[in-house]
Amino acid sequence: MERLLDQWEEDEEPLEPDELPEHLRPSPQVDFSKIKGSNPEELLQMTKKGRTLMTFVTVAGTPSRETTEDLTKLWQTSLWNNHIQAERYVIDDNRAIFMFKDGSQAWEAKDYLIDQPECKEVSIENKIYPGKYSETVCTDLQHTNSKGVLRILLYSQYYIYFVDSLFIYN
């Protein structure tokens, strides 16, 4: 039976690369001349072009599943209006997966998502990007340094900053 199938397929023309299943498609050729500087994200974005990529999005606070459903639906619609095709799957009360058929679009979507006040973080390829509104000031960790300058610790889950007057330290 298997030989009969092989004989049947011998006479057919080979499929176009875009008609092949994703795991059988040839890898996209990366043009290194288009890469500006040494930006690893840009290189990663170019290698994910045409490949399926999943992005995890965490909603800030303790929303209900319905709230997460509504927010992510709104974000998905905004992405579609910007010609970024993403499928959305809510996996927890405050987490969702956005799946992109063209993985290079995930970084454009990330830029939009982290600008949203309700977005806590976006994770692409195990790299976490905190939302712009996810930082909080922790007043109970205020103290003065040896020069008597009041230091306030600003923190998010991934970055810690000390603020002295007008200086920010990483």
Automatic annotation (TrEMBL):
<feature type="compositionally biased region" description="Acidic residues">
    <location>
        <begin position="7"/>
        <end position="19"/>
    </location>
</feature>
<feature type="region of interest" description="Disordered">
    <location>
        <begin position="1"/>
        <end position="31"/>
    </location>
</feature>
<protein>
    <recommendedName>
        <fullName>LDLR chaperone boca</fullName>
    </recommendedName>
</protein>
<dbReference type="GO" id="GO:0006457">
    <property type="term" value="P:protein folding"/>
</dbReference>
<comment type="similarity">
    <text>Belongs to the MESD family.</text>
</comment>
<dbReference type="GO" id="GO:0005783">
    <property type="term" value="C:endoplasmic reticulum"/>
</dbReference>
<dbReference type="InterPro" id="IPR019330">
    <property type="entry name" value="MESD"/>
</dbReference>
<keyword id="KW-0879">Wnt signaling pathway</keyword>
<keyword id="KW-0256">Endoplasmic reticulum</keyword>
<dbReference type="GO" id="GO:0016055">
    <property type="term" value="P:Wnt signaling pathway"/>
</dbReference>
<keyword id="KW-0143">Chaperone</keyword>
<dbReference type="Pfam" id="PF10185">
    <property type="entry name" value="Mesd"/>
</dbReference>
<keyword id="KW-0732">Signal</keyword>
